[in-house]
Amino acid sequence: MTGPGKTSAHWRQVLRDVVARPSGAVGLALVLLHLALAASSPWLATHDYKAVSTTLMLLPPGSDHWFGTDHLGRDVFTRTLLGGREALLVTLVATPVAVLWGGLLGIYLGLVGGRLDDVLMRVVDALLSLPWILKMLLLIVTFGTGMAVLIPTLAFFYGVPVIRIARAAAHNVVARDFVLAARARGHGRLAIIRRELLPNVLDALMVEGAMRWSWMLLAFSSLSFLGFGVSPPTPDWGLMVADARSYLPIAPWAGLFPIVALSSLIIGINLAADALAKAVGVDRAQKAPI
Amino acid sequence: MFKLIVRRLLLGLATVGLVSLIIFGAVEALPGDACTAILQQDAQGQRLANCRAELGLDRPAWSRYGQWVGGVLRGDLGVSTHGAQPIAGIVGARLQNSLLLGGCALALGLPLAFGLGIAAALQRDRWLDVTVSSGAIAAMTIPEFVSATVLILVFSAWLGWLPGIVTVSADAPWTRFFPEILLPAVVLAMVMTAHILRTVRSSMIEVLDGEFVRMATLKGVPHAPRVLRHVLPNALLPAINVVALTIAWLLGGVVVIETVFNYPGLGRLTVTAISERDLAVVQTVALIVSALYVAINLAADLLTLVANPRLRTAVTRAS
Question: pTM for the whole thing?
Answer without folding.
Answer: 0.83
